[in-house]
Each structure stands twice: as structure tokens, then as C-alpha cells.
């Protein structure tokens, strides 16, 4: 019973994230991402480059609780401009919608 009371006092710290793995992504590339019609804020996006045997970059966006829904979620990526110095086109390789608690 004591454990149940402690849970009520300390609610879960839910974290919602969209993580996208893009091959050949560079800093000058300008993209917009939306989920279920909600445009994600590029100012809150973090990037994590992975250069071990690949040229991958993980783009990570924090999400608000209402952005995701149970079942199918629609992810739309709009490319505004690409780095003109790159000959290789970026390729979306993976999308993960993450809920941590």
C-alpha cells in the first residue's frame, strides 16, 4: 500500500520523441518535419552524427503529449533546401516514435 501512495506522489516522467536516421544529412540541409499535422520545432531538434562505417545522422525531436496518437501516425518530411556542396542525396533510413517512462 505504501508503494502505491509513493507512485501517486511521484508521477511518471514521460518523454516523447521522434527519431529519424538520415544518411548523407549535412548541417546546411533545411527540412521540416510534421507528425499528424503538427509541425515539429527545428529549434528544439538535436542531431547526433554517426560516422563509424556510415555517414548517418540521427535527428531527434521532443514531442508534446498530444502529437502522437494510438495506432497509425503520419510523418511528413518536407525538404526546403539541400547542401549544394554535396553530390549525395540525403536518404531517410529509419523513423522511430519513442515513448519512455
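-> sequence recovered:
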Amino acid at each position: 500500500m505504501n508503494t502505491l501512495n509513493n507512485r501517486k506522489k511521484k508521477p511518471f516522467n514521460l518523454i516523447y520523441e521522434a527519431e529519424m536516421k538520415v544518411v548523407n544529412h549535412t548541417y546546411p540541409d533545411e527540412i521540416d518535419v510534421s507528425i499528424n499535422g503538427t509541425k515539429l520545432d527545428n529549434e528544439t531538434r538535436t542531431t547526433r552524427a554517426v560516422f563509424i562505417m556510415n555517414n548517418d545522422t540521427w535527428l531527434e525531436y521532443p514531442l508534446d503529449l498530444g502529437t502522437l496518437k494510438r495506432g497509425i501516425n503520419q510523418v511528413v518530411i518536407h525538404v526546403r533546401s539541400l547542401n549544394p556542396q554535396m553530390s549525395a542525396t540525403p536518404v531517410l533510413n529509419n523513423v522511430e516514435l519513442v515513448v519512455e517512462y
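Residues 35 and 75 are 5 Å apart (CA to CA).
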